[in-house]
Automatic annotation (TrEMBL):
Catalytic activity: ATP + H2O = ADP + phosphate + H(+); Couples ATP hydrolysis with the unwinding of duplex DNA by translocating in the 3'-5' direction
Chain ranges of the UvrD-like helicase ATP-binding domain: 1-395
Boundaries of every UvrD-like helicase C-terminal domain copy: 396-688
Pfam families: PDDEXK_1, UvrD-helicase, UvrD_C
Domain of life (superkingdom): Bacteria
Name of this chain's protein: DNA 3'-5' helicase
GO biological process terms held by the UniProt record: recombinational repair
Keyword DNA repair attributed: yes
Signal peptide span: none
EC id: 5.6.2.4
InterPro entries for this protein: DNA_helicase_UvrD-like_C (IPR014017), DNA_helicase_UvrD/REP (IPR000212), P-loop_NTPase (IPR027417), PDDEXK-like_dom_sf (IPR011604), PDDEXK_AddAB-type (IPR038726), Restrct_endonuc-II-like (IPR011335), UvrD-like_ATP-bd (IPR014016)
GO molecular function, one term: DNA binding
Residues that, per the record, bind ATP: 5-12
């Protein structure tokens, strides 16, 4: 049975009605009569989110409770029996079902019965460690891989870097059930399908045409020369397709030329592409091994293992009479294969979904699963399709607009049907348009905020005539802020939206959902402090820190500090700021950075600067304080998980800002007795929600250009494209087709996301877009509708036509005397320290931290350059690396000279080594103390290891040994425990006026 359920048509009700009819043996329009009840343990009801599964279980329970009170004694007894068995009933997400099956058969799969399932963040952290190690190893040992990486970022934060691409391919492979252990075999084999005979054929047809136009004659001559010395001269072939009689030959010629050059270049560079595939395969194998070593699986493993278990026939599949799958349009290919493996010849499959609401292809959902299941049902024989079209959510005027808009966007569209018609209703879809092309997102969001205030506090003319009161549409129903939902396709302009709402006095919240925590300014201020402490050369972080409530410097004062007489100069800012009294605070925290945890530094700076008092005095200060505290809790969780080195914590924080964690990244949820605030969410986060009024701003967005260089084709081949090899782009033969398929899926999904956004509202939908000279995004999709829709369906308003509404604004409290707040309680650190804490009290105290001689900056850049050189076995341009990591560092010449000398020394020290490990992390337990750190350079020899620790210092060898001996002893102890039986030596590399290697006994 297939429920084709359009938006708002009661899909969940249909699913639970069917479940109730099955377990009670009751009547149902799509089931045979006089059936026997089906025991709950014989039914599998699956969906794809925990919330949806909880709702299904709750609704089934409610139906059973209602049936228990029936006058029919048999029916009442049966309902009571179902209720007793309901806690153990198979109503869950597909992942939860698979996890239970894995527990049951753990030993057959090589797992212990107590295996753990990695949460998303744990999995991502482990994966990053594995990928980094494997990529470094490949860079050290594989010359072809180094050549491959010349044209791309390797470990950058971009999703298009090598590490980002491998991460994406692993996730895609999991969702499609692909085995990457032999990824090299997934590359298309180089083949010559185009040859000189194909070009000769074009030449013959062209000469036979008898045409005498100059472009044709020039083309004949160019082809003749090319054929005489094939393939030279291909680049000189020009199009001649303006003449209709030979246009097809011109098109065919240039297709042949492109295919020939693609195949030829791919074959020439195949070794480089193989090196990437080898690295991908090793990453997949190492990640699997790392999870096995921890007796752990991730959510992808759960699906793959259960699929393989069921298909192998090693165990008997669960015996379900009925399998019901809700939200099937969100299913991945491997989830589909699990469903197929459970679906036996004598069992019944019911799927419920809507192809128009398939919006998770970016999260590996496969839009072809629902049609594939429908096709398989048809092949099995008798089945029923139940179209659900009647909307129980939206009023008729909203439905009229939705139908008119999307009938023109889908090749086949099932129109929604309203429950009834509301007479004398106004148009219930609005479009807020810019007055001119110059009005940008700030103007748009201000118009949105004014329109919201008019809905809540304006006259009746600004509200729909009928509003949903919780039971039905009633005339004159007032609007509260909590009735309004703002749906975003992307978060690019969310900050502008939130500011506009604050300025207009509109309370808002993310509703405890989404990933907005790391987008809040108070959370980013926390990162700016940590960056200013740990990254002396990060001038942008320094400026942000000075502007933050920690320092609260006005912009004009910052500009004055950086003014060189003509313009703002960051080097001047560093010099002049560090000569001020205020700089002492930052310098003091920099000095403590080697011995204290990030959370300890934050606790102290909050108390010293009254940061929490400042937040409490701002508009929405309670929310800001809650967000800041939640970010600190996240920071503490990172430290408890083993990351205590300040630099590592900051990098983790930077990643979270760029790509928020999949869970726990929503704004802090405040207790609000009235719950009266506008909710802001992404469209993806709002799937399944209903609100009276929905705003859909920013519809004039442009789609992002895809810069990726790897993807899987429909046939599961690994297709690659890379720039920079031999002076031009090189791509695999199937790249263009695979990219076109991928683009088609994304374009179709964009329409689906728009459909979901337009179908969340009961009463009113308000669209808006900024001024633009180029129509793009959803504005382009809806262009015809916005221009031609009847005024009874669509109301158009310019920004200028939306007046201010007289209402009390949210007031900021400016005086600290008015502030009432609870100071942040930040828990103190635990007994876990960075290894540098062993020597902090012994360090020389005479080193200058002024900008002219900032040894910390000197050492930070030096360490980064030496790390990069070590990865490449000491090959690299030191001048370029210092420029890359120093970004205008004033003492670059001096540093380059020193690093050239250091490179020469380190080459000798590591000569004959089998492998070099730069910034090698370790954890060492000593009684109740856990030491965490990283070794600057660990060189592996045959049955021996050598530790080299860099110190940018003019200290004497004797005093340096006395100072840093405990630290080096911890390094030796950690390496010795990791490699028992091997010899371990250690040395300090003192980098001062000269370079000295001091052996540690």
């Amino acid at each position: 049975m297939i429920f084709n359920a359009s938006a708002g048509t009661g899909k969940t009700w249909q699913v639970t009605e069917l479940y109730g009819a099955l377990v009670l043996g009751g009547d149902h329009p799509h089931l045979p009569e006089n059936r026997s009840p089906v025991p709950p343990e014989k039914i599998l009801l699956m969906t794809f989110t925990d919330n949806a599964a909880a709702e299904l279980r709750e609704r089934v329970a409610a139906k059973m409770i209602a049936a228990e009170e029936s006058a029919d004694v048999d029916q009442s007894d049966l309902a009571r029996s179902v209720l007793r068995h309901l806690p153990a009933a198979n109503i869950s997400t597909i992942h939860a079902f698979c996890a239970g099956l894995l527990r049951e058969h753990a030993l057959e799969l090589g797992l212990s019965p107590v295996f753990q399932t990695l949460e998303d963040e744990e999995r991502d952290e482990l994966l990053d460690q594995v990928l980094t190690a494997e990529i470094f190893q490949a860079l050290e040992t594989d010359a072809d891989f180094r050549a491959f990486c010349n044209g791309v970022s390797v470990l950058g934060g971009s999703e298009y870097s090598v590490i980002g691409t491998i991460r994406m391919l692993l996730e895609k492979a999991d969702s499609r059930g692909l085995d990457l252990s032999s990824a090299e075999a997934m590359l298309p084999v180089p083949a010559e399908t185009i040859g000189i005979a194909d070009f000769q054929k074009i030449y013959d047809e062209l000469t036979a045409s008898g045409l005498s136009q100059k472009t044709v004659l020039d083309a004949v001559d160019a082809l003749k020369q090319c054929l005489a010395n094939f393939p030279h001269g291909l680049d000189g072939l020009k199009k001649f397709g303006r003449i209709k009689a030979v246009k097809h030959l011109s098109d065919e010629l240039f297709e042949l030329k492109d295919r020939y050059q693609t195949e030829s270049q791919y074959a020439d560079n195949f070794g480089n592409f193989q090196s990437f595939a080898r690295c991908l395969g090793r990453c997949a194998n190492s990640f699997a091994a790392a999870k096995r070593a921890r007796d752990a699986v991730d959510f992808g493993d759960q699906l793959l293992m259960v699929r393989d278990l069921l298909k192998s026939n090693r165990v008997e599949a669960p015996d379900f009479e009925w399998i019901i799958v809700d939200e099937v349009q969100d299913t991945s290919r491997v989830q589909c294969e699990v469903i197929e493996a459970l679906w036996r010849a004598d069992s019944n499959l019911v799927i419920c979904g809507d192809r128009k609401q398939s919006i998770y292809a970016w999260r590996s959902a496969d839009p072809d699963v629902m049609p594939d299941l429908e096709s398989w049902m048809a092949q099995r024989g008798e089945y029923a399709t139940v179209p659900l079209k009647k909307s129980y959510r939206s009023k008729d005027r909203v439905i009229d607009a939705v139908n008119e808009l999307f009938e023109g966007l889908y090749a086949s569209y099932d129109a929604l049907e309203p429950l009834g018609t509301l007479q004398d209703e106004k148009p219930c879809v609005e479009f807020l348009a810019a007055d001119d092309e110059e009005q940008g997102s700030d103007d748009e969001m201000a118009a949105v905020a004014r329109r919201i205030q008019l809905l809540v506090n304006g006259g009746e003319e600004w509200r729909p005539a009928f509003g949903h009161d919780g039971r039905e549409f009633s005339e004159g129903t007032p609007v509260r802020y909590s009735d309004i939902l703002i749906l975003l396709k992307r978060s690019t302009h969310q900050a502008a939206l939130e500011k506009a709402l604050r300025d207009a006095g509109v309370p808002s919240t993310s509703g405890g959902k989404g990933r907005a925590l790391f987008e809040q300014q108070e959370v980013r201020d926390l990162l700016l402090f940590l960056q200013a402490v740990t990254q002396p050369q990060n001038d942008l972080a320094l400026v942000g820190f000075l502007r933050s409530p920690f320092m609260n410097l006005p912009d004009d004062e910052i500009v004055q500090l950086g003014w060189d007489g003509k313009t703002f100069d960051r080097a001047v800012l560093r010099t002049q700021f560090f000569e001020t009294e205020r700089a002492k605070l930052l310098l003091r925290y920099r000095e403590q950075s080697g011995s204290k945890l990030a959370s300890q530094l934050v606790r102290e700076v909050v108390r010293e600067t009254a940061f929490d008092a400042y937040l409490a005095g701002q508009t929405g200060g309670e929310q800001m304080l809650a967000n800041f505290k939640k970010a600190l809790d996240w920071l503490r969780a990172i430290e408890r998980g083993g990351q205590v080195l300040l630099g590592d914590v900051v990098r983790r924080f930077e990643r979270a800002i760029k790509e928020p964690p999949k869970s726990g990244a929503a704004e802090a949820l405040l207790p609000d007795p009235q719950q009266n605030a506008v909710t802001i969410m992404t469209v993806h986060g709002a799937k399944g929600l209903t609100k009276r009024i929905c705003f859909v701003p920013d519809i004039s967005f442009g789609e992002q250009t895809d810069k990726g260089f790897a993807l899987f084709s429909k046939d599961s081949t690994l297709e690659l494209k890379l720039g920079g090899i031999d002076g031009g782009d090189v791509k695999s033969p199937g790249w263009n087709a695979a990219r076109a398929d991928d683009k088609a899926v994304r374009e179709k999904e964009s329409v689906n996301v728009f459909y979901v956004a337009m179908t969340r509202a009961r009463d009113l939908v308000v669209l808006s877009g900024a001024g633009t000279s180029r129509v793009a995004g959803w504005m382009k999709l809806s262009e015809k509708f916005l221009e031609s829709a009847d005024s009874s369906v669509l109301k158009r308003l310019s920004y200028a036509e939306i007046p201010e509404c007289e209402t009390r604004k949210l007031e900021a409290r400016n005086s600290k005397d008015e502030v009432v707040f609870q100071p942040l309680e930040i828990p103190k650190g635990f007994d876990r320290k960075p290894v540098t804490a062993l020597v902090e009290h012994l360090k020389p105290t005479g080193q200058s931290l002024t900008p002219s001689g900032d040894r910390r900056a000197f050492g930070t850049i030096g360490h980064a350059v030496l790390e990069e050189l070590a990865k490449n076995r000491w090959v690299g341009d030191v001048v370029e690396l210092v420029e890359l990591f120093g970004n205008g560092f004033e003492q670059s010449k001096e540093l380059v000279d020193k690093l050239e000398a250091v490179r020469e020394v380190l080459e000798k020290e590591t000569a004959g080594g089998e492998a070099l490990f730069a910034e090698h992390p370790f954890v060492l337990k000593r009684d109740d103390l856990i030491l965490d750190g990283s070794i600057d350079l660990l060189a592996q020899f045959s049955n021996a290891w050598k530790i080299l620790d860099y110190k940018f210092s003019n200290d004497t060898p004797e005093h340096a040994l006395e100072t840093y001996g405990p630290q080096l002893a911890a390094y030796k102890e950690a390496v010795g425990k990791m490699h028992p039986g091997d010899a371990v030596s250690a040395a300090l590399v003192l980098i001062g006026e000269t370079v000295q290697v001091v052996e540690v006994l």
